Amino acid sequence: MTTAPAADQRRLLDVQALDTTLDQLAHRRRSLPELARLLELDAQLADLHTALVTSRTAAEDLRRELTKAEADVEQVRVRAARDQARLDSGQGSPKDLQALQSELVALGRRQSDLEEVELEVMERLEVHEGALAEVASAHDALLAQKTAVAADRDAAFRDIDAEAERVRASRATTAQGLDEKLVALYEKLRGQLGGLGAAPLRGRRCEGCRLELNPLDLDAIRSKAEDQVVRCEECGRILVRLPESSAQA
Questions:
Q1: 241 and 125 housed in the same domain
Q2: Would the keyword Cell inner membrane be found if you checked this record's keyword annotation (predicted)?
Q3: What is the pTM of this model?
Q4: One domain, residues 86 and 126
Q5: Are residues 77 and 113 in the same domain?
């Protein structure tokens, strides 16, 4: 049967209060709204990054297509210029000059067709680059939001961690010198019962499970020696008897 000085048992409630505060701070740290917002932003950034890569790849493909279209037009222009120079020089047989004239007409049509292709690719590229700029801008805006939210998260972490450090220091001072067996039992129960290992008895009610003890259990508890550690029959927590709980409810 565990015993501990009544004063230690009452001081254990102060330790429990500080441990509860530490648990609440840890929960706050895990539940910061900034953390959820960062997850949302990361998901949005992942989608935008995929869109950005796809759009950039498509733009590069269009630039290569435009480069080829420009090269095709230039090739026809060079050939037409060469043929025109030969025709203007008047050198060659009439048949050759007539063939040059026919080729120049064909090259003119070919150049016109290729310039239409070049123009169509340019227009598509212009539209696509506009869309790419919008996606890139949205991506940059989300990155800026993420940076700001991360800064808010870090500031909240610093505040919570500083407060937790103060509470831990107070907890260490409060727990100093407590009965070792009492503390060991308390820590064991805390781990098993959701962080609450000790609770006061107020009137007939255990403040751990918030249930009222039946008269027989209550009388049995009140009859025990002050230094005897009692447990709640309902939840199993250490039940700390306060001076007012010794009076009949």
A1: no
A2: no
A3: 0.75
A4: yes
A5: yes
